[in-house]
Each structure stands twice: as C-alpha cells, then as structure tokens.
C-alpha cells in the first residue's frame, strides 16, 4: 500500500465529511464509520511521522464558521476529545492518569449527541452564546439560545463573568413532532435528532428554534471570575444550584474497574433515555490535575470519549417484498420478525438489489444479523446459514411489477431492475411527491401524506393535476383531505406560487433519470425555454460540461416520449412557467465557452447566487474539476477541488477577483 497516498485520501475524505457534519448538518456516513476513518488516519500518522501535516484533520476541530452568522472569538479554545473504542483503551487511559497523577478521581458522563455551545454571563445575565466553529472562532447564536427554555437567562450568583460549555440537543419526542410536521409540509425529513438540532440552532429565524423545542445540558465550567473550584464534580453541583441542567447522571469513580462499570451501565440504558447519546466521557475530576496535564493542539490529555459499537441483534426474515420508486426502480425489502434495537422496534430493512441478496445469501426464513447504521437505518449484515431451516427459500426479483403488472427489465451492465410500465401508480405517487419537494417545485403543504390522500380520492393522477386543485377548493375543505380551510388555502397559494419558478426547478421536478438540481441548472442556462429542450439534439447536449452519453440519452428519451410531451403541454396550459429566466436576464457573453467550478464558502454570496451570475454572462458551472475547467472560484475552507485545480494549473479566483471580471 502507498502509505502517503492513503494518508492523503483519508485526509480529503475526512475533511469532506467534516463539512457535511459540522457546516451542512447533513452527514452522509454514520458516526461509527467516521470514527473508523479517523482512527486509521491517526494510526498511520503516528506510525509514519514523516507524513505529518499541521493542517491534517487530526490536528484541528472539524467545524468552520457559517458566513450568515456573526463571528465571535472564543476565550477558551473549544476542542474535541480523544476517541477510544475498546475496554483496553479505557483501562490504558486510566492507568496512564494514575501513573502521572498518583491517586486521581474520575468523572464519567453521558456524551449527549447535539451541538456544542458556549454560554457567557456577566453579573448573572446571559449576554452571549457561541457555537464551537473551528474551536478558535465560533458563530453567535445568542438570539436563538434565548428561545430555549432550559437555558437560564439569569442566575442567582452574580459573578462578574461566567462561561460554561454545554450541548444543545433535541429530545426524541420533539424530534418526532418536528419531523412529522416536515412530512406534512413537504419539507426535508431529518435522519437524526442531532442534525435537526444543529440545523435549527443555526437558523436565522429564532421563531423556528422556539417551535422545535430544543434543550441543553451543561457539561463544563470554563471561566468563573470571583469563584474558585477544586474539582469538576464540585463545579457541576454548583452549576446545578444556579439553575443549569447539568450532565445527567454523572458518576465519580476511583479505579479502572469502576470507570468501566459506569461506561457499561450507560451503554445498557442508552436506548431508554429520552435523548440520544453517542458515547461516554471519562474526565479527570481535579481541576489542578487538569492544568498539570494540559492539552495537545486538538484534544485535552485529561479526558477521553468512549464510542459504543453499533448494537447488533439476531432476527428472522419472514418475507421479502418489493417497493417501486418514482423512476420505476424495484427495491427489495426484508420483512423481519420485530426486534428491539437501538431503542426502537425494527420490522423492515432494505436489501438494495438482487446482487446484494445473492452476495450475502439471504433467504426467506433465514436467521440474520441486523444493526442500525449510525443507530438510524436498519441494515442486514449477514445471514447465519447454520440456523437456516429446510424450508428457507431463495429470493428472485419479479419479472413483473408488483403494482401495475408491467414487465420488469434489468439495466444493461447494472444492478437495478425497473418497471417498464408507463401508468404505474407507485411510480406516479413517488414522482408527484418528488415534483412538489423542496429541491424541485417547492410546493409547501404537498408532502407524502397529502399526495397519497389526494391520489386515493382521485384528485391527482399526475403532476399537472396539482394545478387544478384550486377548482375543488370547497370539496377539499368539506372532505378535510389535506386539512381545514386554512391548510387548503395555503396549499393552493403554494401551488400558484410554484408556477413562477424558473424552469430549472421544473426540469428537476419532471424526474428525468440522472438529471438532478445541478444538471437542471445547466440546461436552464443553455436553453431559452422548454420548447428548445424538447427539440434538443445529442450534439448540443454532449457538448455541455459533465454531460456524458448515458445522461444525454436519458434526456433525449424523456423528451421523445409522447406521454411526456402531453404532460408538458398540460403544465403549460395550467400556467406553469416554461421560459428560462437565466436566459432572459443574460447580460452578455463574456463567460461564453468558460466553465467554472465553485468550492468553499464565499464572503458575500452563496454558491447559488454565484452560479446564477456566471450563467447570466454566458458561462457554465460544473460540479467537478477537470482539464476542461476554465476557473475555480474558491472561498474559505476550499477542499479537494482547490487542490486538484492547483495540480492541473487551473486559474484560481477569489470572490474579489471574480467581481472585478464583472466590472
């Protein structure tokens, strides 16, 4: 293995996932998978110090600062904890502390899964609240913290200055309520309470914070002018007396056995808690001892965070059924004998495709091992052949759609099997849900439950029927299908508003295979209207940035179908905008023939705004750097795209340089 290359790959991968987790609150992998990447990188850097780098993700805190919120310098660096994953590592830490300190005491706490914040009080009054950010600079979320009931706005002891650190989180109940509302309004459904809590706290509208019922636990005292403490446990007890909700159920220990016993107890009860935790923290209790030990550039030497492995259970595959997606893709779903895992009862798990089933040799009747990936999504890890009954049946994907009966077809050189039917209700329902979603036409109030109800009552058969709902206003109110009068009127207003969208949203909503938001924007910036798109040629499309043969053929196939031509005509008759606003507002062609790639956070504009400007001047925006790239517009925390551009000798632009090109 090329060690240097592997280290560089790990750094880029971890930086990418840091951005998704800390800055976008939208992680793509589980905490466990992330921890394994970090662990591998840390070990390689220790074994091969010649490849060490000061900007490695192992040497800094993951988060950066969002541009929209005011930056605030931290008084005390807000750093992460060293992660450990085994009993041996916990004992090693405890023995090391005993060796260095003599007779230390330890505190073991639950590691609440939320967003770390620092609270500042002057003369007993809350005056500021700051996120972790990059550990040196955070972002002010003071106005949002005022909306959290459990955050004390004043405390009885009026110290000149007090600073505490806590974790803002969302309870399981509040998470379920918020997600239910998101579903009803067609908004994004969050995968974890942590993501929703983090996204909520960084909202620019404090009313959203009030509505979503966030909570806080304070787990550390950072500064207390005018009052001295000898131990961490003493400071937590004092903070509790001041009205702070402190680390729930923290325990004081002396020996390694006691520490491990506490960790085990927390692990056994974690799924019964009303909030999520992602580990247990072991800290040296004495504040004087902490000063002696000090900190490294990234972690304190006096604490570690133990990460629990994903819980795994045995259960039985009672059946395998098939779901049909909006593009006609058939996805097998295991119906499991219900089993409680990671705090909830699991009775279903996706099996992805026929190849997945075959490679793991999963049969109906099998005993299987399941876990929740990241404690969220149920997955079947493997079957246990030695427990297989004689009646176990191999599963083969159907050659007919289970919904409409049309033949199914396996993609050439692919693993996906699709329904070939043009009138499949399952495809239609998911297609309509997607059309109304936030990334497409953004019709608030037309979520999955509303679409299902309107389809079952016969009001919607395809997306064009959405624009006829206003004709049935009184009926809808009387029947209460999507709610009472206010809900119906809000939905009709949202439908009417969506008619004004630029055609990139319409293109996205049409659900053309392999065409997402970015591709739709490129099409909208290169073609004046839907008519031009319907008459587009292979040569015109293949010349566009990042357009490959498969995508081009999918687009041509979509617009060649008579049923799609008729659908677009019905949408046009309903008053849906068919013209490209980007093309209409094009100023000149100074960027004609130029391809831009955007990376990092720009100081004064979003990527969407920058994309629109580039398109208005005839340029194209691509999602990846290649030899065809003309410029890379780079902001703060630019990642691997910037590195690749530098390697290829592509011109790098700052926002200021980009603006000069517009003058």
Question: Can you characterise this structure?
Answer:
This protein is α+β, with helices and mostly antiparallel strands and 663 residues long. It has five domains: 3-59, Helix Hairpins (Orthogonal Bundle), CATH 1.10.287; 71-306, D-amino Acid Aminotransferase, Chain A, domain 1; 312-418, OB fold (Dihydrolipoamide Acetyltransferase, E2P), CATH 2.40.50; 425-498, 5' to 3' exonuclease, C-terminal subdomain (DNA polymerase, domain 1), CATH 1.10.150.20; 586-663, Rossmann fold (3-Layer(aba) Sandwich). 38% of the residues lie in helices and 20% in strands. It contains 25 helices and 22 strands. A five-stranded mixed β-sheet has the order 2-11-10-3-9, sandwiched between helices. β4 (115-122) and β5 (125-131) form a beta hairpin. α3 packs antiparallel against α9. The longest helix is centred in the N-terminal third of the chain and has 21 residues, at 3-23. The protein is globular. One of its GO terms (cellular component) is cytosol. Keywords: DNA damage, DNA repair, DNA replication, Ligase, Magnesium, Manganese, Metal-binding, NAD, Zinc. It is an enzyme of class 6 (ligase). It comes from Acetivibrio clariflavus (strain DSM 19732 / NBRC 101661 / EBR45). Belongs to the NAD-dependent DNA ligase family. LigA subfamily.
Question: What is the strand and helix layout of this fold?
Answer:
Layout: H1 3-23, H2 31-47, E1 71-73, E2 82-84, H3 87-101, E3 106-112, E4 115-122, E5 125-131, E6 137-139, H4 142-145, E7 162-170, H5 172-185, H6 193-201, H7 206-212, E8 214-224, H8 232-241, E9 251-253, H9 256-269, E10 277-284, H10 287-293, E11 303-306, E12 312-324, E13 330-341, E14 344-350, H11 354-360, E15 367-373, E16 377-383, E17 408-410, E18 417-419, H12 425-436, H13 448-456, H14 473-479, H15 485-498, H16 503-509, H17 517-526, H18 530-534, H19 538-542, H20 549-560, H21 562-573, H22 581-584, E19 595-599, H23 607-616, E20 620-622, E21 631-634, H24 640-648, E22 651-653, H25 655-662
Parallel strand pairs: 2-11, 19-20, 19-21, 21-22
Antiparallel strand pairs: 1-6, 3-9, 3-10, 4-5, 4-7, 7-8, 10-11, 12-13, 12-15, 13-14, 15-16, 17-18
Helix pairs in contact: 1-2, 3-9, 12-13, 16-17
InterPro entries: BRCT_dom, BRCT_dom_sf, DisA/LigA_HHH, DNA_ligase, DNA_ligase_CS, DNAligase_adenylation, DNAligase_N, Hlx-hairpin-Hlx_DNA-bd_motif
Protein name: DNA ligase
GO molecular function: DNA binding; DNA ligase (NAD+) activity; metal ion binding
């Amino acid at each position: 293995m090329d060690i240097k290359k592997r280290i560089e790959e790990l750094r880029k991968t971890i930086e990418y996932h840091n951005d998704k987790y800390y800055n976008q609150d939208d992680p793509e992998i589980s905490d466990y998978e992330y921890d394994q990447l970090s662990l591998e990188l840390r070990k390689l850097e220790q074994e091969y110090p010649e490849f060490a780098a000061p900007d490695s993700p192992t040497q800094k805190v993951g988060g950066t600062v969002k541009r929209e919120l005011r930056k605030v310098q931290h008084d005390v660096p807000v750093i992460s904890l060293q992660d450990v994953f085994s009993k041996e590592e916990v004992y090693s830490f405890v023995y090391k502390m005993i060796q260095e300190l003599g007779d230390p005491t330890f505190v073991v706490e639950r590691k609440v899964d939320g967003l770390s914040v620092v609270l500042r009080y002057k003369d007993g009054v809350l005056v500021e609240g700051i996120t972790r950010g990059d550990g040196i600079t955070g972002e002010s979320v003071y106005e949002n913290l005022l909306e959290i009931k459990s955050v004390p706005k004043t405390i009885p002891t009026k110290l000149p200055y007090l600073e505490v650190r806590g974790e803002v989180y969302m309870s399981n109940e509040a998470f379920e309520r918020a997600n239910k509302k998101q579903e009803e309004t067609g908004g994004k459904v969050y995968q974890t309470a942590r993501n929703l809590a983090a996204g909520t706290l960084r909202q620019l509208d404090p009313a959203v914070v009030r509505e979503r019922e966030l909570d806080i636990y304070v787990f550390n005292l950072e500064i207390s002018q005018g009052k001295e403490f000898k131990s961490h446990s003493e400071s937590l007890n004092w903070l509790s007396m001041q009205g702070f909700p402190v680390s729930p159920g923290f325990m004081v220990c002396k020996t390694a056995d006691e520490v491990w016993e506490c960790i085990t107890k927390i692990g056994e009860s974690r799924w019964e808690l009303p909030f999520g935790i992602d580990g247990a923290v072991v800290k040296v209790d004495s504040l004087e001892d902490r000063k002696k030990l000090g900190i490294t550039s990234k972690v304190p030497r006096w604490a570690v965070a133990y990460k629990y492995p994903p819980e795994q259970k045995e259960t039985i595959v009672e059946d395998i059924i098939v779901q049909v997606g909006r593009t006609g893709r058939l996805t097998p779903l295991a119906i499991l004998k219900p089993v409680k895992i990671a705090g909830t009862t699991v009775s279903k798990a996706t099996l992805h495709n026929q190849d997945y089933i075959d490679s793991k040799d999963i049969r109906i009747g099998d005993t299987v091992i399941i876990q929740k990936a990241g404690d969220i999504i149920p997955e079947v890890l493997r079957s246990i052949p030695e427990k297989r009954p004689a009646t176990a049946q191999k599963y083969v994907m159907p050659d007919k759609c289970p919904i409409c009966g049309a033949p199914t077809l396996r993609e050439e050189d692919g693993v996906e099997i699709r329904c070939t039917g043009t009138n499949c209700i399952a495809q239609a329902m998911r297609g309509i849900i997607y059309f109304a979603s936030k990334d497409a036409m953004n019709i608030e109030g037309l979520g999955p439950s509303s679409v299902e109800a309107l389809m079952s009552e016969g009001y919607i058969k395809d997306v064009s029927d959405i624009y006829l709902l206003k004709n049935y206003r009184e009926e809808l109110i009387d029947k209460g299908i999507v709610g009472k009068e206010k809900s119906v009127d809000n939905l009709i207003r949202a439908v009417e508003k969506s008619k004004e969208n630029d055609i990139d949203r319409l293109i996205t909503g049409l659900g053309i295979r392999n065409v997402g938001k970015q591709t739709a924007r490129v099409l909208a910036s290169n073609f004046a209207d839907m008519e031009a798109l319907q008459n587009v040629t292979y040569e015109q499309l293949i010349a566009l940035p990042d357009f490959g043969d498969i995508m081009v053929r999918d687009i041509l196939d979509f617009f060649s179908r008579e049923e799609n031509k008729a659908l677009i005509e019905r949408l046009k008759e309903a008053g849906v905008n068919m013209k490209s606003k980007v093309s209409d507002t094009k100023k000149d062609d100074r960027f004609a023939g130029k391809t831009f790639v955007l990376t990092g956070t720009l100081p004064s504009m979003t990527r969407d705004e920058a994309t629109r400007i580039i398109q208005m001047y005839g340029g194209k925006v691509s999602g990846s750097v290649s030899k065809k790239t003309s410029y890379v517009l780079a902001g703060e925390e630019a990642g691997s795209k910037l590195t690749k551009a530098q390697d290829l000798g592509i011109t790098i632009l700052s926002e200021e340089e980009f603006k000069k090109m517009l003058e």
